[in-house]
Amino acid sequence: MVTTGLAPNTADDPLAHGQVALVDLLDRVLSTGVVVSGDITLAIADVDLVRISLRALVASVGALAPPVPDAAAGVPA
Length: 77
Prior knowledge:
19% helix
C-alpha cells in the first residue's frame, strides 16, 4: 500500500511555502473578505443550557460596496 501526503501546489497558492508579512495578509483578507463562524455550547451533565452561534464577516468597505460609475470615464450612471 502506498500512501502519499497532500502537498500544497504553489501554482494554486503562491503563499504556500513562503513567509508572509502581517501587512500582506491583512491586505489579502480585506480585499477579498473572510467569514469566521463558530458555536459555543454550555452544558452540565450532558444537558445543553446555553448555545451561542457566532458569525463575523471581515472585509473592507470597497470589497462589499458596488463600484461607483465614473462620470469622467463616460460611463452613464
